[in-house]
Write a structure and sequence with these properties.
62% helix, Outer membrane efflux proteins (OEP), single chain, membrane
Length: 466
Amino acid sequence: MSLSRKACHATAWYPLALLALLAACGPKPEPALSGLDLPGRFLDPAAAAPVRWPEPEWWRGFNAPALDALMQAAIAGNFDLAAAAARVRQADAQLRIAGAALLPTLAVDSGVTQSRSTASGLSRNRNATRYDATLTASYEIDFWGRNSASAEAAAQNARATRFDAGTVLLTTEASVANTYFNLLAAEEELRVQEANLDAARRTLGVIRQQVNFGVATGLDLAQQETVVAQVEANIPGLRQSAAQNRNALALLTGQPPQSFTLGAGAFDRLRIPEAAPGQPADLLARRPDVLAAEAGLAAASANVAAARAALLPSISLSAQGGLQSAALGTLLRPEAQFFSLVAGLAQTIFDGGARRGQVALSQAQAEELLIEYRRAIVAALQDTEDALVALRETTAQEALRAEANARAERAFGIAEAQLRAGTINLITLLNTQQSLFSTRVSLVQARLARLQAAVALFRALGGGWR
């Protein structure tokens, strides 16, 4: 090969090398980074305990078989979970649509054309038949990465949708647990109020006897009757709360209330499972809402890259080939073949600023999602700190309420005995009685608050959705 021919071949590669260099300089999506400095540890002392992330079925630690059955029913029939699964399928379909732009388009066409014409000056018609089969291919070269950026945006949106479904699952599980505990608490408080009513009626009976013997006055009797009436007035609201929580559980499991059944449960037999977070960075990797915000930011960054690439020229290739003949028998002969290849370069000269406006819009959307990503991170850290302190303080509160209730039970027993012996005044009796009734209800509410704090902690730690 002569030197001049070698030089010509080398020169022919220069435009291709230049195009490759230009393509490498095309817009690229920015990485999805929050720019926040994460703390090295949580503030609450409980975070110093050995790391113990929630189990996938974290609710089983509460020792409530009925809750286990409710969770399974909710996972199978909850409407929000079903809708989230449908949104995931929609996002997957959108990803396939976006990815199709990276592949060539093929089309095949075949037909038979029958035509008739009349020659000028002749009365005889002329018939003509044409047979053809055509294969057409077109492909837009993704030179600047616009189509790949759009596909990346769709892929990140699909990831975000899956993480959103994880958030829905975690929210549903927490709602089922909290609603079940509310139901048990309402039933327990109803039992407590009925016990209070029995105690108040016993006291009322003793005072009536004392009134008959002239030991007590009508005012004493009226005051105790007021206590009985007040306790009775608390009962209908508790029955309402229990029924409504039961109906809410039916909705959460996707069942009509009329056909919903629930196994028996004991409020005082519930256990509080343990959980302890690791490092804040580890927490963020477990939170589906944080991961969804990160994926949304990545999708927005890819949309910015696609919008910028749309400002640059587009290159397309199209090819067409096939067979065409006036007779079906000669359709496969070489002379019936035809072929064409077209390369095109298109560049928008004026569009009223629409494309640059799309770039500005995509950038503003990415800025908004960056803020939302930062908000999700800070909110996740706050949720965990709040849940840790809530569980610690409600645990202490329940212990104090239990001690206060034990003291009130002992004091009321003494007061009741003194009442029968006629050695106590009514004011002391009423105060002791009200203290007992109050501490019984407060103990139930403290127990419920601790259970809800535990659920909040499991939810803050990402549950077991992964």
